[in-house]
Amino acid sequence: MYDGYDCAWLHRDAANALTKVAADLRTTRPQLRLLVLDALRPQRVQELMWNSLEGTDLRKYLASPDRGSIHSFGMAVDITLIDAQGRELDMGTPFDDLSERSHPALESELLQRGELTSEQIANRQILRDVMLANGWQGISTEWWHFDCGDRIVVRQNYTRIL
Ligand SMILES: [Zn+2]
Questions:
Q1: Which residue among the candidates 47, 109, 119, 142 is catalytic per the annotation?
Q2: 55 CA to centre of ligand 1 in angstroms
Q3: How many domains does the chain have?
Q4: Range of the structural domain that residue 53 is part of
Q5: 109 carries an active-site annotation
């Protein structure tokens, strides 16, 4: 679906903010690295994904194409952490797991129900702390997704890639 894009692209502002995250991590957690899972997602790809989920209740995990995704501005990133051996940290679910277990907003509940461990939540918190300290904002439904700055400002001031 990403024909024409040979690697993960971001808007320059988001790329600079992510560079800061990497530098911060190198200082505070030198044993960890960032692993970018998705970055720029052009609007046409967003539409293909939206259409493929027609008739399912999974559309709540995608921004509708009318409204558009912050990914389509190159101002959002899906990201996780890897250790010195290149293994992904255990975040409790895989990337793009479309279940409540991915929801940061439900973590204390999920911990109580035994569906997440405190170590998994601590791993997510490392990621959130370093992202939020460097200009990114998380969302309530996906532990891996971060917007660069305010999504309303992005929609008003940045160009959507079609
Ligand atoms: Zn995302």
A1: 142
A2: 21
A3: 1
A4: 12-157
A5: no
pLDDT (average), residues 114-120: 98
- Provide the pLDDT confidence category of residue 67 given band limits of 50, 70 and 90: confident
Q: What is the CATH number of the domain that holds 26?
A: 3.30.1380.10
User: Whole-number mean pLDDT of the chain?
Assistant: 93
- Measured in angstroms, how far is the CA atom of residue 36 from the centroid of ligand 1? 10
71 in any annotated domain: yes
Q: Give yes or no for residue 81 having a pLDDT over 80.
A: yes
Three-state SS annotation for 8-76: CCCCHHHHHHHHHHHHHHHHHCCCCEEEEEECCCCHHHHHHHHHHCCCCHHHHHCCCCCCCCHHHHCCE
Q: Would residue 4 count as lying in a domain?
A: no
- With respect to residue 1, please indicate whether it lies within any of the assigned structural domains: no
Angle at 91 between CA 99 and CA 70, to 5 degrees: 65
Residue range 135-157, pLDDT digits in tens: 999 999 999 999 999 999 999 99
- Does any domain span residue 7? no
Distance 125 CA to ligand 1 centre (A): 17
Regarding pTM above 0.85, the answer is: yes
CA 155 to ligand 1 centroid distance, Å: 15
